[in-house]
Design a protein that fits this description.
161 residues, cell membrane, membrane, single chain, mainly alpha
Length: 161
Amino acid sequence: MKKIINCIDEYLEEIILVFLLAAMAVIMGIQVFCRYALSMSLTWSEELTRYLFIWAGFLSVSYCTKKCISIKIEQFVALFPKRGKALFKVVNHTIELVLFLYLIPFAWKYFYSAIETGQVSPALGIPMYYVQAAPLAGFILVAIRIIQRWIVEFNTVRGKE
């Protein structure tokens, strides 16, 4: 069981993102084939690809947080010793965590409003809350990943790593 949890912790975002991007490529490839080879267009392909792209966008924030891939000023942070870098990162992660914890209730309201209205997508006819759940899921995963990074950096500041 511990092995499965570690695997999910390590590769969750990568697996989902690879699946989403591969599905987008296949769907758009089929659309191009149908449009040019068969002279017919699929009505649902662009809509589904757009929704997959939305999910990929929100999940990629979590992936980047986990891998510490973000826009930052590395030259400034590099001036500090190891503990100073870790302290700077703890402060940074704290600010990020506050931001995403602030955003989660708004994402919940957005998701819940889609459930209440019962809106469906025009071409696919799927409930829009499937799409509007992406910010909520993404922000929750980001908060979890920030907490994980925060613990690592905090232990470095304390000298335990």
